[in-house]
Write a structure and sequence with these properties.
alpha+beta
Amino acid sequence: MEQEIDQNIIKGAGQCHNAFCCLSAATRKVCKIRLCMEDKLYFVDKAADKKCRYIKESGKAYICSCPARKELYRKWGI
């Protein structure tokens, strides 16, 4: 199943080097979100993709800033 995301969100995630594989169930590879705080901070397990430009390490925590990933979680709980 393909997830449809607003094109402005896709443009905001222009640094994705995985060709937005997260939007297709067949190719989906995403970090698991452990905690979302006020729809601003998305804490994830270690990066599913170590080259991801949207994962920042903060001490022992990992924070995702990818607009597409955040939208998948907001809309579909993925």
